[in-house]
Specification:
By secondary structure, the protein is mainly alpha-helical. It has 8 helices and 7 strands; from the N terminus they run αββββααααββααβα.
């Protein structure tokens, strides 16, 4: 809970916490990111399966940090739920909060625990990317496996990564 208030404040300052409604068509902004009408990050995939950079980065980040528990391509495992299904109904704000704060489910004598990842830069610096990848999977807009191609990496993405992770020396 100690991290929840600062994370929510950071989320609000960065404009990441918006009310969630049905996703509408993606609109690009100057940094190559796509947003829905609510301002939530979303994916853009062309007819040939080429994704925007952020969705491609989300594929990479998901498979480096999340798939160990949640299974390849968001399909779930015996250990953790299929995020491909979860993101059909979970809002962006709830997704960020759950990843940052973790979750415990102690029902039916089973202990299911999602760890707090709010201080894990390998996750939180790329949370929008992971979200867009999983949203694309949940909408069946993106097949399993590595995307067919992707847009070039925007300078804004590199600048954001350097700001969050620290610029290479």
């Amino acid at each position: 809970m100690r991290i929840a208030v600062p994370l929510f404040a950071l989320c609000a300052v960065l404009g990441l916490c918006a009310a969630k409604a049905e996703p509408l068509p993606a609109a690009p902004n100057a940094d190559g990111k796509y947003s829905d009408a609510n301002g939530d990050p979303t994916y853009n995939i062309d007819k040939d399966g080429k994704t925007d950079w952020y969705t491609y980065s989300g594929f990479l980040r998901y498979h480096s940090e999340c798939h160990v528990c949640h299974g390849p391509d968001g399909m779930g495992s015996t250990y953790a739920p299929a995020l491909k299904d979860t993101l059909k109904t979970m809002s962006y704000t709830d997704f960020v909060a759950t990843v940052a704060q973790g979750r415990k489910n102690l029902e039916n004598g089973q202990e299911k625990v999602m760890p707090e990842l709010g201080l894990n830069k390998n996750v939180m610096c790329y949370i929008d990317d992971i979200y867009t990848y999983l949203k694309a999977r949940s909408a069946n807009a993106l097949d399993r496996g590595r995307p067919a191609g992707h847009e070039p990496k925007p300078k804004a993405w590199q600048d954001a990564q350097d700001g969050c992770m620290g610029a290479p020396s």
